[in-house]
Fold:
Amino acid sequence: MINSYRHKLDALHDWAEAARDVGWLTREDIQPLSQQDDSQLVSLFKEQGEKPLIVAFFGGTGVGKSSLLNRLAGEEIARTGIQRPTSMEVTLYLHRDFEGDLLPENLPTEQTRIAWHNQDNRRFVAWLDLPDMDSTARENAALVEAWLPFVDWVIYVVSPERYHDDMGWRFLQQRGNQHAWLFVMNHWDEGTEEQLEDFRNKLVSTGFHHPTILRTICADGRADDDFPQLEAIINDAIARHGLALLKSLGVQARIETADAQLGKWLQTLNGKQRWDEAASTWQSTCERYLDKLENQLATRADALEQNLRASKRNETAETLSPESIAGSLWSGRSEMIVEDLVIELANALQNLGLPFRPFENRLKALQTEAPKTIQAPLTEALELAMAKPGTAWQRALYKTMDWLSFLLPLAAAGWAVFHLANTFRYATLGERPFLGVNFAVHSALMIALAWLIPWLIKRRIKPSIVSSIRQGLSRGIRSARAALNARLDSVWQSVNRDKAEIVEQIESFQQELAKLKSNAHQQVGDFVADEPGHAARLQTPAVTPP
Structure:
């Protein structure tokens, strides 16, 4: 499977499903991605008739085909030695993904020995080890001929000692002129430049124009040779074949579709004009409904004040707790105002083509908690108002009159006692007459007035508990409106933070898809395991079939 593409597109699909679950996308938004399920190997190879890139190895006995194959494959997939089992048979080396009978039925595999390997970077290349063409067993010629129409690359291996035997490549030349050819002179440590030039001349004389001949040494402790160039050519062929498979799978089209969807989502979620308009509509709608709610609460507060004032005893208000008073202001009408606010905000967002579901849960929570949001500042304001009724100057004057209502009568009584005692002393000496009833009456009146005047003033200016409750409700209603407005603003800000994160994730997916589209080697990363910088060294020589 094409893991790099599958991984990115599956990750995008999973992300889109998660975004749909929280409401940023709709089912219609992700339907184009959901409809593009990956073609499975069985569909690609068995049903669509595709096949792996088939690289066939030909050559005489002892030229080192199996050693070269092992070196290319990166593991010991072919057995070496003079008595190889493959000397008299065709062997097809496949990745274990193909064990599930995924090859097209027209491939001649019935009389072919199949061996398996686990090299993931060679998943879609099949190494075909054909019988030695110089062997005495000619019964395999029909099987070789059956395989030739499916061969993409022919790697003909010779050695400095055996390149004179041209029976094999002449056989292939007559029957396999639709392939790309590579000639490899193996055991180059035993060869000379003259032998290489002689072999080239033989190939040119038989119709191979500009043949590519590479020199390899597959023995242990081998020196530098042309193997990196050979590997680069094969890697490039695998990459080209991988791109063809990608086209068969429609992956490029899938990426274009996914990229287009990302662009649409980004346009919706990152459209500044629409979101600015939504922000303005959000603010004006909230202000309008908060005005309604404030007026509703003020009306309930007026009614409560009238009921308290109409009660026979003012002490009735004193028995009420701030919580009960604050709770009495919230009514079914208040709930309807908040519910209408949520509905209108939803309609406004949807009319602008913006997703509402990210707001939905937050607004539902706000609607559920609205009574508490309103009651908390009301209760706090009432507690403060009832604990300190009236204004500061009113409380100070009341306290002053309270003290005067005690001190002034005491001072008047002191003066009357002093005057009575003093007059009595002089009267006993015969210097003055004793005080009469008039003094007693006037002294009592003075003492009474000294108490009555501050008491009357104190009574007059005593803060009313009902007035205090009304003042507390007025301050509490303003605070409650501000608290609910802060909650609404918090909903908008939190959704905008989530939106910014979603936009960042979409842009990240766009960058990843752009990399996949722009880098062919990255597109077929499952086919070619390039080391860093290796792709830049891929220089494919001209390979001209006869």
Remarks:
- Residues 36-43, 81-87, 312-316, 520-546 have pLDDT under 50 and may be disordered.
- The CA atoms of residues 296 and 333 lie 8 Å apart.
- The first strand starts at residue 53 and ends at 59.
- The chain has 18 helices and seven strands.
